[in-house]
Amino acid sequence: MSEMETELEESDAGSVLNEKANPCGVLVRPRELRVMLRSVPAPAPGEVRLQMRCVGICGSDVHYWWHGSCGPFRLHDPMIIGHESAGVVEALGAGVTSLQVGDRVALEPGVPCLQCQRCREGRYNLCPNIKFFATPPVDGSLARYVCHPAAWCYRLPESVSLEEGAMCEPLSVAVHANRRAGTTIGSLVLVLGAGPIGLLNCMVAKAFGASIIVVTDIDDRRLAFAETHAGADAVINTRDLDEHDAALVVQQALDGAQADIALDCAGLESTMRLAMHVVRPGGRICLVGMGSSAMHVPLVDASSREIDIFGVFRYSNTYPTCIALLASGRVNVKPLITHRFMGLEESSLEAAFETARTAANGAVKVMLTIPE
Questions:
Q1: pLDDT digits (tens, 9 = 90+) for 26-67
Q2: pTM of the model
Q3: Rounded-to-integer distance, Cα 278 and Cα 248, Å
Q4: Contact predicate 29/75, CB 8 Å
Q5: Out of 54, 68, 74, 290, which residue is the most buried by the measure of CB atoms under 10 Å away?
Q6: Superfamily of domain 3-167+333-369 in the CATH hierarchy
Q7: Cα torsion for 63, 66, 72, 75, to the nearest 10°?
């Protein structure tokens, strides 16, 4: 047992919680979530202490919970989980003037160094020194109290709920992807994958002015959701189609044209191959999902048609845009929050994560609510 685990065992949340107790959802090891007590943090200069209210469960959270890893990042020590979050400012550190106690804010979970070349270019999501919630070894935000730099907390207008504020994090991925892809007025867009990120990419593409959006998946229920709630103009189940037949059906849905942009939110070899067949010469493919670590794809054909392929890693400079999209009503994320779990109890956390993992009962986005 590690020194940290020993400390956590001694601080188990089975005891009576006082007014300033700080229960946290801690991933001790794969498939073991515990509610532990940590000390209530004091905000350092430039920070605020927040009382967390809403924390969404992301696919990466589920990966850490179920496998102990996500991509190249691996869990070695117990870690507070969660990074899609919103809360209320409770205390100000020295020098904070941009926020006040009682402000409702969305938290951007990554804090970059602001000194490296990538940060200086404005691409701080690529900062090698970034500290990102719930990315080992950095603790996340599934706790009653969290301290965070005020500069990375964004005040929410009255028209935007705390749940919507927490949704700014996955929405940021979609905003960043559509910016990378160059989605604009009149774009013909193919979205591959109708999970939460695919649905959000569909919504953002519509908000950015895309004229036709086609969504593919192998789940009829999620495709129906994309058509009803995410603004998809056409949906196609590709389960029983080979890539050439699927490309023909997609082209028919695009009024006989090829796509200007493909947003691959599944990240599988099959979806990347389909994207390469569907995108027009000079078009763009944005690899958003991280499903396959290696792929066999027709790169020579893509090169001869000058198809640009863009990667997406998290996001940068997106939160103000996300809040504006939500406040204006141009993007409505409320239907995506299909399941809610209340409190910081182990039974509630286990049920919430299992629901997110299995997409049980039509789950799209699972939201945890932390009471005052």
A1: 999 999 999 999 999 999 999 999 999 999 999 999 999 999
A2: 0.94
A3: 8
A4: yes
A5: 54
A6: Medium-chain alcohol dehydrogenases, catalytic domain (3.90.180.10)
A7: 120
